[in-house]
């Protein structure tokens, strides 16, 4: 009996020590059973992003390009350039083109200056003219109406077309819906809609460099709303054709858009023709020709 007592005491003592050690090292029931985190989790006080990151994105060469200038508003930047839509006159009808210029807050002033400056040589060769003389300026813009100081028209017969140029050019801006010329009521685009040709091509514009497939878009008021397009190379050979339907036609104006693919071994001048096919004899009518540069295809 005494021998059993001597051997049981050390065993009991060892069990007690193991239990004490296990109790001290065991995790609390309220804690996680997984591994400890390697970094502290973010707290609610950490700043959050409200827009695109201001960090410059890597350029194709692997270096970082400088971030664009900020406007001071979180998540926005000020563009370096501004693309304007200018409306000139061709054969007595309105025709749009574009200019890209350094950005400015005086957009209406810039648009009128560019409109008065007239077409580029390529646009002039295609028949575009401006009827707006120098000196036109916007005196105020309020409640969507731009009030204009306009010099007397050199030719009274062209006064209405000149006003239409101004109205269509200024109403591209969201702050302008109508233009007041100091008489009668302010006028909007609908007041000069009769000066639009049957087919208007808003893109591409004269002088653009295009790649395949080229997207041709604009508005049209043609029979059964059917608009046809063809591409010609420098020699006048037909490269491709396509057709689409505008959103409205035969007495109403609708929007159209069509992509035309082509194959070309080398870059060269070309022409985009947009037209209506005559229901009477199948000829091309209401044709609009847009001289462009056709990029080579691979």
Automatic annotation (TrEMBL):
The keyword Flavoprotein does not apply. Residues 108-195 form the GerMN domain. Residues 32-76 are annotated as: Disordered. Keywords: Signal. Residues 1-30 form the signal peptide. Residues 32-63 have a biased composition (Low complexity). This is GerMN domain-containing protein.
């Amino acid at each position: 009996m005494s021998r059993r007592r001597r051997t049981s005491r050390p065993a009991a003592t060892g069990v007690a020590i193991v239990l004490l050690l296990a109790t001290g090292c065991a995790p609390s029931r309220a804690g996680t059973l997984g591994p400890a985190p390697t970094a502290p989790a973010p707290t609610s006080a950490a700043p959050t992003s409200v827009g695109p990151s201001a960090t410059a994105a890597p350029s194709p060469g692997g270096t970082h390009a400088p971030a664009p200038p900020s406007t001071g508003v979180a998540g926005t930047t000020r563009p370096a350039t501004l693309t304007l839509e200018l409306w000139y006159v061709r054969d007595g009808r309105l025709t749009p083109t574009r200019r890209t210029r350094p950005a400015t807050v005086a957009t209406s002033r810039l648009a009128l200056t560019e409109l008065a400056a007239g077409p580029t040589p390529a646009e002039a060769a295609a028949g575009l003219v401006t009827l707006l003389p120098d000196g036109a300026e916007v005196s105020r813009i309020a409640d969507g109406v731009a009030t204009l100081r306009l010099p007397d028209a050199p030719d009274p017969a062209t006064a209405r077309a000149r006003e239409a140029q101004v109205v269509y050019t200024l109403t591209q801006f969201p702050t302008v819906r109508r233009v007041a010329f100091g008489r009668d009521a302010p006028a909007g685009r609908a007041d000069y809609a009769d000066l639009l040709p049957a087919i208007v091509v808003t893109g591409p514009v004269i002088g653009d460099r295009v790649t395949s497939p080229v997207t041709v878009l604009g508005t049209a008021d043609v029979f059964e709303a059917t608009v046809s397009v063809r591409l010609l190379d420098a020699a006048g050979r037909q490269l491709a054709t396509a057709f689409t339907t505008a959103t409205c036609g035969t007495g109403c104006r609708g929007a159209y858009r069509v992509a035309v693919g082509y194959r070309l071994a080398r870059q060269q001048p070309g022409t985009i023709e947009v037209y209506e096919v005559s229901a009477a004899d199948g000829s091309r009518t209401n044709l609009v020709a847009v001289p462009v540069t056709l990029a080579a295809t691979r």
